[in-house]
Amino acid sequence: MLNEKNLPNYFWVEAVATIVYIMNRTPTAVVHGMTLEEKFTSKKPDVLHLTVFGYIAYVHVPDDKRSKLDPKVEKCIFIRYCSK
Amino acid sequence: MFCGRHEELSQIDYKREKNGRMFTLDVNMLEVNSMLFTHGKGTRDIRIWHKRVGHDNFQHFKLMEKQNLVGGLPKFGIKEVMTKVCEACQLGKQARHPFPIETTHVSSKPLEMIHSNVWTTKIESIGGCRYHMIFIDDHTRKVWVYFMKHKGEVFQHFLNFKTMVEKDKGVSIKCLRFNGRGEYFSNEFSKYMK
Fold this sequence. Notes:
Chain A is an alpha+beta fold. Chain A has helices at 12-23, 36-41; strands at 56-60, 73-77. In chain A, 21% of the residues lie in helices and 12% in strands. Chain B has 8 helices and 6 strands. Mean pLDDT of chain B is 76; it is low at 1-7.
């Protein structure tokens, strides 16, 4: 994933965290008929929020952090899901 | 003006015309139009979904669709799943013989056995981490990962992990299995294990 987006290797923490997040939500050979997340929590995970690692994202800047003429969004790249 | 996800914009780059520092986009062009409105969150393009799930196996889509494992995934045709090849996967994933699928499972309940390992790299992350520690539940195979600046943090992370999962499941960890490396034999860890 780092190679695909030409990201520097010091993003490895984000890459590993993303992989673990995805692994828990996709099938494996050992656990049949459900994802690891479902087997552990008994709740079916949702994947509609998944985004490609390293893609360009636009983050909203809260009202009190900007003035009228400042841009409303900040351009970033997506590197990690929030684990909470 | 058009705002869109990078994945769509890069595909229609060649159809934009430069006008000063602005780009105008002719949405009436049939090709552009179909690209804009077919690639949302619910896009059915399997290549994009393949990237979204971190370059996971294409077969897994078939499995997830067939057994209804997750919500929110669009339906892909089986033929479509079979024929895709991803360049990044060819470069990044080495062909290697798979491990034999284990037929015997030691544990029958979550948290009965936890596997753990510490991994080291020379490359410091942005936050200054050089180690990561993983915990795998033997029964469900769910994975947790913790990042560390020093190996001495192993014990603290283990305690955090232990409280978190035990609170979650309401049962305690029965067995922790790790390789016999030094990081698991610090004074406090050994004392705790007794």
